[in-house]
Amino acid sequence: MTTEGLPQRVPAVGLPERVTIYEVGPRDGLQNESGIVPVEVKAEFVERLADAGLSTLETTSFVHPKWVPQLADAADLLERVERRAGVDYPVLVPNERGLDRALQAGVEHVAIFASATETFAGKNLNRTLDEQFGMFEPVVTRARAEGLRVRGYVSMAFGDPWEGAVDPAQVAGVGRRLVEMGCGQLSLGDTIGTGTAGHVDAVIDACVAGGVGVETLAVHFHDTYGQALANTLAALRKGVTTVDSSAGGLGGCPYAKSATGNLATEDLVWMLDGLGIAHGADLRRLVDTSVWMAAALGRPSPSRVVRALSG
Question: 8, 112, 195, 234: most buried, per Cβ within 10 A?
Fold first, then answer.
């Protein structure tokens, strides 16, 4: 693989100088696998991503194994991973029991997973849209009291497979309640990939108008309809500086079957490199890592950049 001279760097006006890549491959990427990936493979995956220069690695989830058996080895994985200085290893916690397990594992950063819609709250959390906050509040309060940072995900922020269109004001309302609860970052999730660039503008504008500062926002796009990079660029133009992505484009959502893979980290890095935006990742090592993981999973990576540079 050679990337010398490519892509040509042509900075654009009105974009951030640096973007934080919030790598979700080890958690969001692998949770949707039909089979169980061995814990030693997961640990090597995390190590390879750190070697590639990624400084935020969402490593696993302390969800009940009944619901996501692919991540039943969360505690074992965290014991195996050498947690490096300067690298953040957040984990997802669905409830207080999950927080208990995360604290026992010595984590410093947790995330909760909320819904912007009534139907998905019921299917994913067994709660109403309003009741979900009662479940999250003690988790966030305890986590903050223990000195942990807390991220809040807002899923179905750009469309719901059961309800259809989602009012940006409703997304903003959910996000504001999570921030007021104590979430220091809010990730807006296009869980089924139906968002477009103008829609991204509308949701971000609604959040800011509702009192959530743009510096608090991150974006999490799925590439179901090929819009993830366009949507990311729209978010960057609005001032968002944290972008979720998954090495090799792994991932989906086990509770929303129309959700396909996440924005591939390599595709994101290619775009950021072309725009002259700093991010700290090594594209060559990322591609090598995704080729290695694709071989472990027994199928090619869906990332266009991985395919182009490894062919």
Answer: 195
Which element (helix H / strand E) includes 50? helix 39-51
Task: State how beta strands 60-61 and 149-155 pair.
Answer: unpaired
Question: 209-241: per-residue pLDDT in tens?
Answer: 999 999 999 999 999 999 999 999 999 999 999
Is-catalytic flag, 183? no
- State the catalytic residue, choosing from 253, 281, 283, 294: 253
Q: What are residue 242's phi and psi, to 5 degrees?
A: -125, 125
- Cα 296–chain centre separation: 22
| 87, 262, 266, 290 from 281: Cα distances, Å | 12, 18, 9, 14
3-class SS at 73?
A: coil
First-residue to last-residue Cα distance in the chain: 8
**Model pLDDT, residue 20:** 98
Given this model, what pLDDT does residue 260 score? 62
Sheet holding 91-92, edge to edge: 20-23, 242-245, 217-221, 185-190, 149-155, 109-115, 91-92, 60-61
pTM > 0.90: yes or no: yes
Cα dihedral value 35, 38, 39, 43, nearest 10:
-100
pLDDT bucket at 34, cuts 50 / 70 / 90: confident
Tens digits of residue pLDDT in 243-270: 999 999 998 544 445 446 899 999 999 9
Q: Can you tell me the distance from the alpha carbon of 152 to that of 187, in angstroms, rounded to the nearest whole number?
A: 6
Find tokens 């690298």 and name the residue.
Answer: 87
- Contact between 87 and 50 under an 8 Å Cβ cutoff? The reply is yes
